[in-house]
Amino acid sequence: MSTYLGDSPSGPAITALGGGHGLFATLRAVRRLTDRVTAVVTVADDGGSSGRLRAELGVIPPGDLRMALAAMSGNDPEVGIWTETVQHRFGGTGALAGHSVGNLILAGLTEVLGDTTAALDTVGRLLQVRGRVLPMSPIALDIEADVSGLESDPRASRCIRGQVAVATTPGKVRRVRLIPANPPASSDALDAVCDADLVVLGPGSWFSSVIPHVLVPELFDALIHTSARKVLVLNLAAEPGETAGFSAERHLHVLAQHAPDFRVDNVVVDAASVPAGREREHLRRAATGFGAAVDFVDVAETGTHRHDPAKLARALGQYLTRPHGRSSSVGGGGREIVSWQ
């Protein structure tokens, strides 16, 4: 069973999977719904401060874990100072330049305590986190991708390695793998998925933050067998690099290619990002491959490609009260939800 930080946590259990800014947005939303939140975070970052600490100390890259802790930190003003400090990045040109304070704290605590999860729980108590932040695997992973469009022959594919390389490639990512293949999952992360009432996957960098979760066999098995309602949150727009030119429908197709047996109950799509008409029909059709209904909802921060935490919280909150199973559909697997607008 998952052990939540804080005294007598209340509310439904929500487990959110992802990494980086996408997971940060989800966590800022779901913390409005319950005290029982668990973040399951990707561990393949190889850039910036995280990449340096990973290479020099052999630790799990701490950056995405740190961001998840900050997203779930308490509201007390004194805690706010600690959260700001944990997120602070050193300037200058010396050895500490570019490092986040929180990354260094997590790396140090991991060495002192001998365990990444214990280090995360310790910082979680400092930040008065109501819930937990967990790595998806107890070991650092690498991402490897098959990418086309990098050779003179557009049909030729090249193998590139590393999360940063995959996220910024000018080519077209066809498929990603984890190295080592079939890595172990964090046992606490498995418990969090199995014990959840609601599991949320996405938004985030599709190939480097979302898809990796279904490539960890034990975690994928837990996602398949959990009795929780499963919700997939799509990005508001394609990202430069790994998903340049992707439609919302294409995001679903590539996830299905990596996890053919994956099923979710609902797909949340920002209503303004997919025009009514043929594009929505194609998206609904793609969602049926997951056994999912599509809910078109206003979840964007006005004038941006960022999710608004309050709007996303209202959108996800409906799944805690709606009976489990497919929502009633309009036009073959789609549902307009306008009450949040």
Automatic annotation (TrEMBL):
Organism: Rhodococcus artemisiae
Family to which the UniProt record says this protein belongs: Belongs to the gluconeogenesis factor family.
Name recorded for this polypeptide: Putative gluconeogenesis factor
Domain of life: Bacteria
The entry's keywords: Cytoplasm
UniProt function note: Required for morphogenesis under gluconeogenic growth conditions.
NCBIfam families assigned: CofD_related (TIGR01826)
Pfam families: CofD
Keyword set includes Lyase: no
Predominant location: cytoplasm
Compartmental location: Cytoplasm
Organism classification: Bacteria, Bacillati, Actinomycetota, Actinomycetes, Mycobacteriales
